[in-house]
Amino acid sequence: MKNRVRELREKNGLTQEQLADVVGVSRQTIISIETGRYNPSLVLAYKLAKNFGRSIEDVFVFSELEGGEQGE
User: pTM of the entire structure?
Assistant: First the structure.
């Protein structure tokens, strides 16, 4: 899933460690989200979006193909 976490984190002047502390995860989790290796839970996605003052849809771009669903 594509996301804007790195962009928004840097825009807000936060380090990966600071963002991790705010949302209650490890720095490695933030790194994995930023690089697209890990898709966060809905709760974590909400915490990240809320921290940036954005909607989940503003931070994360979900593609149906990535979700394993095919169009009808």
Answer: 0.84
